[in-house]
Each structure stands twice: as structure tokens, then as C-alpha cells.
């Protein structure tokens, strides 16, 4: 009986669901038909017709008066007002002035190419008595490549009997060495046997130029060792004060001064007579100083230092004691 009752309830539930679905379908069909009928009654709308056009408002035109032309009276000329006419003045430079300026600049360039005074004096002495000069010491005098032509012109004389030429610790470059080697190869100063070029601004390639000179001038020996030949001590460096010009130049206590600018042993009298005038005459100007110093291996070496005398916090212009 229980099974019969449950089966009856199941069949009754299925029937109820079917009726509900059927009623929903009928309601949807009725809505579709109603919408179709409503569309037929309204009729089709023409293409491009807007639903509602916005209202346009027009503003009344406002008349604005045009500006009237302004009369501009002609400005009277200065002469009619009794005033002098003013004309701009141009700075005129004549051809003579321009040429004079050019000549001055050329003179300055020539002045820069002139050799230092000690070099010029040595060349003049050689030209005056060419047969009496056997050794020409031009070391540590700031000789540059442009100064070599003055030396070459003096050595080209057939009366020159020079045996030793010292150009060490100058500012010669590879180009200057090339000029020198070419001049010697062409027969300049045939009696020359020693040429000192150590301590210059030459590269290994410049030093190699002298190797070819040996083939033509076998008797001529070119010395590249950075050392002043036959140098003698002028004085010894004592105390060097911290932050002084001597300290900044690299001078050390115990250095032996071999050359102080143009002063070497053949021109040296005393520190006060020979070195002090050079210091006072070159304030704020560099001075090349060659010193002799022992290196870490107890080897003697010659060093060129640049010392600039100047005022500092301490006493003197050097900041060291020379004795």
C-alpha cells in the first residue's frame, strides 16, 4: 500500500510540472503576438528621422562701431627745427693700422722663437771665436726645437772646431732630434765627438734616430743617459718646509744642486751671488733645477725638477735652506 501511495504522488507531481511549463510557454507566445500587433499599428519610420531635434536659440546681432583712422603727421626734419643732424660714426681702420697690427703679431711670434738669453750669448761667443770653443754647454737652458736653427747656423761654419755639445735636460722632442741628426749627417761640425741629449722630451723612437747617424758619423757618440756631463755640486738642500714651493717641486733634504736655471758650476760664485738673483728675478715663474740624488738602490741619478719661487705662509720664496 505504501508503494502504491508513493507512485501515485510521483505521477501527480510530474503532471503538475508539465502544466506549469505549458502555461509559461503560452504566456510568452501571447507577449510576442501583442508586441507584433503594436508594431504594425505604429507603422515604419522614415530613414534618417531623428527622434527629437534640439531647439536652436538665436542671439540678436549687435552692431559694433568700426575704429576711425588716426591721422599721423609727418615728423619734421632736424634741419627745419634748427637742430644739427646726427649721423652715426663708424670706427674706420685703415690698411696701415691693420698691417701694423699684423706686423706686431709677427714680431711676437718671432720673439717667442728667439733662444733664451744664455743660449744667445753662447752662440754669439761661438761666432766671434769659432776656432777657440771646444765645448759648448747648453744644458738646462730651456732649448726647444725652434731654437735649434740658431745653433745649427752657428755650427755650419768651417772654422768651428767644436768637440763636445751638451744639450741635455732641455725641451727637445723627436722632431728636434731629427733636425739635429740630419744636420750632422750633412757634415756639420765634423770634429764633434760627443753629443749629450739625455733628459729631453724625446721618445724611444726619437732616440733610435741617432742609430742611423752612426753609419755616417762613426766618430760621433750620442749620449742619451739623463745626466749632466762633468757636473759639480753648487750647494746642498737643507731643511725643506712642508707646503713650501720647494716641497711642492719635489726637493728633498740632502739633494745636491747641480744646475739652478742658467747657473752651473762654471758660472757659480755663491748662493747669495748666483742663486738669489735668479730667484728674485723669476718670482711666480718656473725655474728648472737639476739635482743629484741617491735612489733606493744606492745609484746616483740626476733629476730635473721645476721650482716656482712664490710667496707662501713661511719665510722666503723657496721654503728651503740652500747651503
From TrEMBL:
Q: Which Pfam families match?
A: LRR_6
Q: Does the record's keyword annotation contain Chaperone?
A: yes
- Keywords for this protein: Chaperone
Q: Give an example GO biological process.
A: proteasome regulatory particle assembly
List the residue ranges of the region (Disordered): 41-62, 75-115
Q: Which GO terms describe its cellular component?
A: cytoplasm; nucleus
The name on file for this protein is PDZ domain-containing protein
Species this protein is from: Prymnesium polylepis
- Tell me the lineage of the source organism: Eukaryota, Haptista, Haptophyta, Prymnesiophyceae, Prymnesiales
